Amino acid sequence: MAKSDVKAPAKEKEARSASENGKATPASSKSDITVAEKLVELYRLQHIDSQVDKIRTQRGELPLEVQDLEDEVAGLETRLNKLQDELTEMETQVTDKNNLIKDAKAQIKKYEAQQAKVRNNREYDSLTKEVEFQNLEIQLAEKRIKEAKAQIDGKKAVVEESKARHDERKKDLEIKRKELDDIVAETEKEEKDLAKKSEVAAKHIEERLLSAYHRIRSNARNGLGVVAVERGSCGGCFNSIPPQRQLDISSHKKVIVCEHCGRILVDDYVVERVKSGK
Q1: Please, which residues have CB within 8 angstroms of residue 56's CB and are 6 or more apart in sequence?
Q2: Which of 5, 122, 152, 179 has its CA 20 to 30 A from that of 26?
Q3: Structural domain span for residue 269
């Protein structure tokens, strides 16, 4: 295939010469720059984005693990709060039943005192029925208290189990967060610098081409949207590229994509330009 000694197009030489001399060039807009320059800027952007990808790969699955743990801890907190609310409600019910028993006993005392003062059997029978009713209320309340206490004991065990699970997962979350923070701290400055460079590089690329680059890159498993031709093959999918197509790539007359994977292809000239920082 054509090597890196392919000459830059005449327009590109003129633009570079005028730029070096501090003169304005006719190619003032993104769409006016040569195809070769467009490819250089695209490959430069890919080179920067690949470095950012490498940094993020170092973090591995940690961000996802932290997110999963945060979701799990939040879910456990919600469940724990709900269980504690249910427990409080049960304890309130027991208190209410105990108060009902107190009131019923007070009523029985009152009715028994009234029985000693009745003047006929009908009044006595009526008060006796009231006493019996209050006794039934007491028995029912005691039954409900017994049931509630059994439920409370069971609920307390569930609360303790949930709390232990919550505390355990929270500790795991703190450990994972620290690991992630340590890695981020090591690479944060470098990543920010690269992100700024990526933004600057993107500004030199026309919107249509930039959009195509991002679309190709998002669909590529390794994040490569622009690749070099290496030994006559695509640097992305490694399929062979016909000689005539290699000549088309090195002529820089138009943007060429791989027929197999759809990645944008560049030659050695573009690669050397980016590597040398030109």
Answers
A1: 191
A2: 5
A3: 10-33+206-275
